[in-house]
Amino acid sequence: MLLAIARDVCQQMGVSASLLSILLHDTQYVVAAHGIAARAYRRKHSFSGHAIASGEDFFFIPDLLSDARFADNPWVNRDAGRFRFYAAAVLRWDGNHAIGAISAVDPNPRDVITERDRATMADAAAAIVARLHERRDAPLLRDAQAVPRH
């Protein structure tokens, strides 16, 4: 189900990759993805960490290379990837506690994001959180719920 949501986001947004990430301490765990490897990555290079830190439910960077926060990121300008566009809907465990994000990335920048794109991401985030609640005893989810957020 989570893989299908990632695939649907990728297709509906017309991007090269989408990923469902849970962030815990210094690590971003990609638990489902389409167009990119699902594995653990260092949080210091995580776009999703910025999405969560923004305090917003939706986070959008039209051109990662033009944003000083991301210009030196290996996912933007090195062998790890060459992403330019990033959009994410934050996953909120209890309606408030951010534990991760569903993200869409693409090598081409985009000047705008449509209301349809925002709705796609919000619907995906809601479906993911509902599915995660069914699996709330998974060790990674227990740990993510226990981490205090500032």
Descriptors:
150 residues, alpha+beta, Beta-Lactamase, 6 strands, globular, disordered C terminus
Helix-strand blueprint:
Elements (H helix, E strand, L loop, with lengths): L1 H12 L3 E8 L2 E8 L5 E3 L4 H7 L4 E4 L12 H4 L7 E8 L5 E9 L8 H20 L4 H8 L4
Antiparallel strand pairs: 1-2, 1-6, 2-3, 4-5, 5-6
Helix pairs in contact: 1-4
At the fold tier of CATH, the topology name is Beta-Lactamase
Give the low-confidence spans: 145-150
The total domain count is 1
Mean pLDDT: 86
Total helices: the number is 5
Strand arrangement, major sheet: 3-2-1-6-5-4
Q: What is the makeup of the main sheet? A: 6 strands, antiparallel
Q: What's the CATH C level?
A: Alpha Beta
CATH superfamily: GAF domain
Strand content: 25-35%
**Distance between the first and last residues' Cα:** 31 Å
Which radius of gyration do the C-alpha atoms yield?
14 Å
Shape: globular
Question: Architecture in CATH?
Answer: 2-Layer Sandwich
Number-wise, the strands total 6
Return the structural class: alpha+beta
Structural commentary:
The protein has 150 residues and is α+β, with helices and mostly antiparallel strands. It has a single domain (2-146), classed as Beta-Lactamase (2-Layer Sandwich). It has five helices and six strands. The chain has helices spanning 2-13, 47-53, 74-77, 115-134, 139-146; strands at 17-24, 27-34, 40-42, 58-61, 85-92, 98-106. It has a six-stranded antiparallel sheet, with helices on both faces. A hairpin with a 2-residue loop joins strand 1 (17-24) and strand 2. Helix 1 (2-13) runs antiparallel to helix 4 (115-134). The protein is globular and about 40 Å long. Residues 145-150 have low confidence and may be disordered.
